[in-house]
Amino acid sequence: MRCRFQHPFKVVWENPKIASICSAMPNMAILQANIAAALNKNNLSESDKNRLEEYAHRTASGYCAGCAGICEKTVDLDIPISDILRYSMYNHSYGDRKTALRLFNNLPAEVRANIFKADYSTAEKFCPQKIKIGKIIKRTCDELA
Ligand code: SF4
């Protein structure tokens, strides 16, 4: 039997374009799920893949794909958008506020000052994940600064 944590790994492992993944395993439950996924030799069914595809599509705006070359060049101030969205993910999705705080506060003061001055409208227009970049970046700044 597969638990919900195994499916994303199976998708990655079944993709011949991906050679390796790096997964944080901060607790025993995640470690055990990863081991179970590695030992499970059954491939995902088409319906599993379709459901995951649909889930990825429905939740896309909550996940930054790290394609910083698309959004960051559209903002005329120096702001590492994908990094800051990752810090937000550490804080909200992983519950790791300590890491989020450390990384955010390591940003140069000038970069942090730019956050509220920038116009993110073009970045949002081109973002393939349709993320509300400005809202999330500013919220992250409020939460972590
Ligand atoms: S374009 Fe969107 S998904 Fe890509 S790095 Fe920028 S915010 Fe993230």
Question: What amount of the residues lies in strands?
Answer: under 5%
- How many domains? The number is 2
CA(first)-CA(last) distance: 44 Å
Helical residue percent band: 55-70%
Q: How much is the radius of gyration in Å?
A: 18 Å
Mean pLDDT: 90
Tally of alpha and pi helices: 9
Explain how this protein is built.
By secondary structure, the chain is mainly alpha-helical. It folds into 2 domains: 6-58, no CATH class; 68-144, no CATH class. 57% of the residues lie in helices and 0% in strands. It has 9 helices and no strands. Helix 1 (6-13) packs across helix 2, helix 5 packs antiparallel against helix 6 and helix 5 packs across helix 9. The longest helix has 13 residues, at 46-58. The radius of gyration is 18 Å and the shape is globular. The chain starts with 5 loop residues before the first helix and ends with a helix. The mean pLDDT is 90. Bound molecules: iron/sulfur cluster. Iron/sulfur cluster (SF4) binds at residues 64-68, 70-71, 81-82, 85, 127-129, 131, 133.
